[in-house]
Design goal:
Layout lengths: L12 E16 L1 H4 L8 E2 L3 E3 L2 E8 L11 E8 L6 E9 L9 E4 L4 H4 L2 E3 L5 E9 H4 L9 E16 L13 H11 L5 E5 L2 E5 L1 H7 L1 H7 L9 E4 L4 H13 L4 H4 L15 H11 L3 H12 L7 H10 L3 H13 L1 H5 L2 H9 L2 H13 L6 H14 L13
Parallel strand pairs: 11-13
Antiparallel strand pairs: 1-10, 2-4, 3-4, 4-5, 5-9, 6-7, 6-8, 6-10, 11-12
Helix pairs in contact: 4-7, 5-6, 7-9, 9-10, 10-12, 11-12, 11-14, 12-15, 15-16
């Protein structure tokens, strides 16, 4: 085979499934139909399922002479030309009392055991000679106002070969972000200017409104819709720039994406670019950006940072990040309580101590009672130490 040209491998797939449809057959004047004779039937209108015609046959005096009219018979018949038509069936005599106690004869329930039923030719039938004892039927809730209602479901089995395309056209990844980003970069068509600490940012009202409910309120529903310039006082230029970048391109700026870990920073986590961007995302309703920032900050959780990150997450409604911080703090309580950030947390969000307590109470295993655990932990949170003098092992 050395040097011989090899054809690429090929594959195909056969898919077998059912094409289903239902038909309701209402029989009025049941008492008048009795006595028409064994083997004689009342037929429904013809209906189509899976490319074949079908009809329901109801035998008031039964189909089988041997039953002496003791049973009514119900069948579903192939009413069009066809050979070896495979199908699943369900015949339901509807309870008219409203209690939903229908009498169901279903082939669907047995399909995995016996397979579909095969109808060989036009006129082939599937059903029950002894569908229901007539004496019971006539005193039941299935017969009301001399009327019967029968529902029939047919599932025709069809098979098809699914072959892959021999030729294909490669479709590139979506580049809508780059197109919108170009509008931001070249300021073409901009209709709003933001003044952030003296630095000017040109943008487009419709773009901002489409991405942010806060901007939508300002430009489409609020007092700022006629303004051409807005002064922003609560964000730094680099934060506002990163937020605009995300709004237009749905990606982080390189500065945010490569920011150093907060665990090695010499300033509080709230002063990092990622934290400030999280706060901006919360204010302007940028849910996806908020989750991205939460994910970035989640990687920096440690004993020294968790209290600060928890405080930030609580303030910015970052629920996913907050849940991770609570779990980590609960697992490493004694060590966390000795961190500088814990005192800051107690000052800025004293309620978070209770939430840590609830996390511990909810996550403890068997052993001492919940009351004893709560008292022990609460003592630590209140006094700043382990009331029993034990050291909580740090789990990172």
């Amino acid at each position: 085979m050395s040097g011989a040209a090899l054809s690429p491998p090929t594959n195909s797939k056969s898919l077998t499934q059912t094409v289903s449809g239902s038909h309701k057959f209402v029989i009025e004047g049941y008492s008048l139909a009795k006595g028409m004779g064994v083997g004689k039937h009342i037929a429904s209108d013809v209906f189509t399922v899976g490319g074949y015609h079908w009809a329901i046959y109801f035998y008031p005096d039964g189909k089988n002479p041997e039953d002496n009219s003791a049973y009514v018979s119900v069948f579903i018949a192939l009413a069009s030309e066809g050979t070896d038509v495979r199908a699943l069936f369900e015949l339901t005599l509807l309870d008219q009392s409203g209690q939903g106690k229908h009498k169901v004869h279903s082939h669907f329930d047995r399909s995995l055991e016996t397979g579909p039923y095969t109808l060989k030719y036009k006129g082939s039938m599937w059903g029950y000679k002894r569908f229901f004892r007539r004496s019971l039927l006539e005193t039941s809730d299935f017969l009301k106002n001399d009327c019967l209602k029968i529902n029939c479901t047919v599932g025709v089995v069809v098979s098809a070969s699914d072959c892959p395309q021999h030729y294909s056209i490669n479709i590139p990844e979506s580049d809508i972000g780059s197109h919108f980003g170009a509008l931001l970069d070249n300021m073409e068509g901009s209709d709003i200017i933001f003044d952030v600490a003296g630095e000017k940012f040109h943008a487009h009202k419709l773009m901002l409104a489409a991405r942010s409910p806060e901007f939508r309120s300002k430009f489409l529903d609020g007092l700022d819709e006629e303004k051409n310039e807005i002064i922003v006082t609560d964000l730094e230029p680099k934060v506002f720039k990163a937020m605009l970048h995300f709004i237009y391109k749905d990606t982080l700026t390189e500065e945010v994406a490569t920011v150093s870990s907060t665990t090695t920073s010499h300033f509080p986590v709230s002063e990092t670019l990622t934290a400030k961007l999280l706060a901006a995302a919360d204010k302007y309703g940028l849910g996806r950006l908020r989750l991205i920032c939460e994910s970035c900050l989640c990687k920096d959780i440690c004993v020294n940072s968790v209290a600060d990150i928890l405080t930030l997450a609580d303030h910015c409604h970052a629920t996913e990040l907050k849940a991770v911080c609570l779990k980590f703090a609960a697992q490493n309580l004694a060590a966390v309580m000795r961190s500088d950030g814990f005192e800051h947390m107690k000052e800025k969000g004293p309620w978070l101590q209770s939430e840590i307590l609830k996390t511990i109470a909810g996550g403890e295993g068997e052993g001492s009672s919940a009351v004893e655990k709560s008292q022990s932990v609460w003592g630590q949170l209140s006094d700043g130490g382990d009331t029993n003098g034990r050291r909580v092992r740090q789990r990172i």
